[in-house]
Design brief:
Strand content of chain A: 5-15%
CATH topology of one domain in chain B: TIM Barrel
Radius of gyration of chain A: 20 Å
Largest sheet of chain B: 8 strands, mixed
Strand content of chain B: 15-25%
CATH architecture of the largest domain in chain A: 3-Layer(aba) Sandwich
CATH topology of the largest domain in chain A: Rossmann fold
CATH class of one domain in chain B: Alpha Beta
Shape of chain A: globular
Structural class of chain A: alpha/beta
Number of strands of chain A: 9
CATH class of the largest domain in chain A: Alpha Beta
Helix content of chain B: 25-40%
Oligomer: heterodimer
CATH superfamily of one domain in chain B: Metal-dependent hydrolases
Helix content of chain A: 25-40%
Structural class of chain B: alpha/beta
CATH superfamily of the largest domain in chain A: Aspartate/ornithine carbamoyltransferase
Number of strands of chain B: 18
Chain lengths: 331, 441
């Protein structure tokens, strides 16, 4: 089992070889993680959660390492969560946004990550509006890249913290029914969740308006046994976990939903619908919520909701990812 | 005074004449003089074509030379040299330049540059609308008189159906074809690849096949209403091809082309071969690479003669245009030098009929655009005519890479791939324009 010393402490000695399960330069998505990789991350996150529960809540394991957050898109929780996680491990943190940096002067993503690498940044967390941008960065720098959300593609640390939260309440997800509802087609959260949930043996159902479902992908069989449906009432029956996604108001302008009113009628996670799920089913949301639209306020803050816990667990999971990536790369 | 050439010992294939046999070709005074077995060389320079295929010089209906306006991507000099290396002796230059050839003055200026710099024969395609803006017709009669071989707004489909009908009426009166990128721009708005399994997997916005099919259906109806010669540029979908086949069966004057990229690759190329996605911007092209079923239908279309031409849509780009985020990257594949190799690969695999494919690189495009009226004998080995010949070794293998491609654009998803089929010699207007001795000779 992992042992992490509290700060202040002598520089960490050689780590036990407990992390053979996942050694990687980057974390770009969950699709290439094996069940064993995921298990390693979950176990490490559990240890990090214990660290966070201590009075000081910090260790010096990554002292001397520099982590940069490079955000081309607005974010509150993901960025703050990574920053807190890196600092809790004793790393130094540099925060860069697209506005107020050389990006505004037209610097390319590749040049920016190479500059960060040159000033000694070992890990760069990237949030970008273009799907695939972290892959471009990873292929062009020897710094580790963690995908903090790329366009409508992937958000691996969100999926890992979601899984971590589910496991704490449900235990093993083998055979459990997890329903994700909303704009699946444009959701990086849903996409990354599918891979971790399938690897965990869950039964995954993706529900949403017909215009917002990845139909061709589901039909291709590439999502395993993942089901896709426009009938949320049917989907939620017998669910053990229900995760509502944020609906972007632009979808209405694009004609993908006729109105928010109709969206609410068909797809809002509310108390009536929740009754159709299994007793004790978890209510989740990656945030930020549009309360009263994709989720009713009483459900969002009700007994079944673990939404705030998701945020808290996010720090532990990101500590685990940072820890595994940095120590896994050490010579 | 040009020297005489004897191309000896090759397999001569000229689909326009139904010719296929081990023959020698004697080229003298700027043209093919004789095609016969075992010609006596006399004083002619010998070109050893043993093991090679000897065909009419290839004709490309869809080339982006980039000049004027985008010389950092390619120039008339660089891209016609690339064409020559790829075995092409005639290319039709697409009008997405800056300024575009939408007036007689612009076409004349372009022809002057071509006369100075071009390494192969270049025939300009004029714009359909002013500035390719899709709002007002260009002066099509003047463009025809200035020397345009066809009309097209290239990557900007003529979305307005009424304007398209008017353009087709003028084209019909002028006897020139209109080459159209068939796409419903509203349906495919913002799409960066084929809409489907891979776009959904990668979180990329897609262009649905229906956007092409719907535009082909509309343009076919307008072709029928006007009697104009409609040429469908770079067709990509199985269903769109079925519409073309049906229209031709009814006798409509419709021709179409397919690119070597769409014959050889699918949407999978964006994902790449690895377990994690590559987001390969070199596989980003408009219209997008489609599904395996579409690809198979396109090969069958060439074999059945429904597809008239294999046209490259050669689209060179500078490094920075492609080395960026996928949605920011430019559309297009640099492929005029790899076109033959992809065709040979498909022929070796038994997917393409070699004779049909050579026809689609020679006489097919000539007939589609009526090029023989401008260049008598183009796309054939007819004695006394154009005198364009391409000699290639289908067994020779090479690797496409920054060092081997002469185009300014190194943007191809085939980078690093070993390919069969290498052009050994090109004769242009009866003169040896390119010769590459085999490395082991």
């Amino acid at each position: 089992m992992l042992e992490i010393k509290e700060q202040p402490a002598a520089p960490a000695g050689p780590e036990p070889a407990a992390f053979e399960g996942w050694k990687a330069k980057d974390l770009l998505d969950t699709d290439t993680l094996s069940t064993a990789n995921i298990e390693t991350i979950m176990e490490t996150a559990e240890a990090m959660r214990e660290v966070r529960a201590r009075p000081v809540g910090k260790v010096a394991t990554l002292r001397g390492a520099t982590v940069a957050t490079l955000f081309y898109e607005q974010s509150t929780r993901t960025r703050a969560s990574f920053e807190v996680a890196a600092k809790a491990l004793g790393a130094d943190v540099v925060n860069l946004s697209a506005s107020g940096s050389s990006v505004e002067k037209g610097e390319s993503l590749i040049d920016t990550v190479r500059t960060l690498e040159a000033i000694g940044t070992g890990v760069i967390v990237i949030r970008h509006k273009s799907s695939g941008a972290p892959y471009l960065a990873a292929a062009n720098t020897s710094a580790s890249i963690i995908n903090g959300g790329d366009g409508t593609h992937a958000h691996p640390t969100q999926a890992l913290l979601d899984l971590f939260t589910m496991r704490r309440h449900v235990g093993s997800l083998q055979g459990r029914k997890v329903v994700i509802v909303g704009d699946i087609l444009h959701s990086r959260v849903a996409r990354s969740n599918v891979w971790t949930l399938l690897a965990s043996g869950a039964r995954v159902v993706l529900a949403g308006p017909p215009t917002l479902l990845p139909r061709t992908l589901a039909l291709s069989g590439e999502l395993g046994g993942c089901e896709v449906t426009a009938d949320f009432d049917d989907a939620i029956a017998g669910a053990d976990v229900v995760m509502a996604l944020r609906i972007q108001k632009e979808r209405q302008e694009g004609g993908l939903i006729p109105s928010l009113r109709e969206y609410i009628r068909g797809y809002q996670l509310n108390a009536t619908r929740l009754k159709r799920a299994n007793p004790g089913a978890l209510v989740m949301h990656p945030g930020p919520m549009n309360e009263g639209i994709e989720i009713a306020p009483d459900v969002a803050h009700g007994l079944a909701s673990v939404i705030e816990e998701q945020v808290a667990n996010g720090v532990a999971v990101r500590m685990a990812v940072l820890y595994l990536i940095v120590t896994g790369r050490a010579p | 005074m040009s020297e005489s050439l004897l191309i000896r010992g090759g397999r001569v294939i000229d689909p326009s004449a139904g010719l296929d046999g081990e023959l020698d070709i004697l080229v003298r005074n700027g043209t093919v003089e004789t095609i016969a077995p075992a010609i006596e060389p006399g004083t002619a320079r010998l070109i050893d074509a043993r093991g090679c295929i000897v065909a009419p010089g290839f004709v490309d209906l869809h080339t982006h030379l980039r000049e004027p306006g985008f010389e950092h991507k390619g120039t008339i000099a660089s891209e016609t040299r690339a064409a020559l290396r790829g075995g092409f002796t005639t290319v039709c230059a697409m009008p997405n330049t800056e300024p575009p050839p939408d007036s007689a003055t612009a076409v004349e200026a372009l022809l002057e540059r071509i006369a100075q710099d071009a390494a192969v024969r270049v025939l300009p395609i004029g714009c359909v609308t002013r500035g390719r803006n899709g709002r007002e017709l260009a002066e099509l009669g003047e463009l025809a008189a200035a020397g345009c071989i066809a009309f097209s707004d290239d990557g900007s489909p003529v979305a307005d159906g009424r304007l398209m009908r008017n353009a087709l009426q003028y084209a019909a009166a002028l006897g020139l074809p209109l080459s159209e990128h068939c796409d419903d721009p509203v349906l495919s708005a913002g799409g960066t690849m084929n809409e489907g399994r891979i776009s959904e997997r990668l979180g990329l916005s897609g262009q649905p096949a229906a956007a092409e099919v719907a535009a082909i259906a509309r343009n076919t109806a307008l072709c029928e209403a006007t009697g104009a010669r409609l040429h469908i540029a770079h067709i990509t979908t199985e269903r769109g091809l079925a519409l073309v086949a049906e229209a031709r069966q009814r006798g409509l004057p419709i021709s179409c082309e397919v690119t070597p990229s769409h014959l050889f690759l699918t949407e999978e190329a964006v994902f790449g071969d690895g377990p994690a996605p590559a987001y390969d911007t070199n596989a980003k092209v408009n219209p997008p690479l489609r599904t395996a079923a579409d690809r198979a239908a396109l090969s069958s279309g060439v074999n059945a003669g429904i597809i008239d031409a294999i046209a490259t849509d050669h689209a060179p780009h500078a490094i920075q245009d492609k080395l960026c985020e996928f949605d920011q990257a430019a559309f297009g594949i640099s492929c005029i030098e790899t076109a033959l190799s992809t065709v040979v690969s498909l022929a070796l695999r038994g997917e393409l009929d070699l004779i049909r494919a050579i026809g689609a690189l020679t006489i097919g495009p000539v007939r589609a655009f009526g090029i023989d009226r401008r260049v008598p004998g183009a796309g054939t080995l007819a004695p006394g005519r154009a005198g364009d010949i391409t000699v290639f070794d289908p067994a020779a293998r090479w690797q496409a890479g920054p060092g081997t491609l002469v185009s300014k654009g190194k943007n191809t998803p085939l980078l690093g791939r070993e390919l069969p089929g290498r052009v050994r010699a090109v004769v242009l207007r009866g003169e040896l324009a390119h010769l590459e001795e085999p490395a082991h000779a």
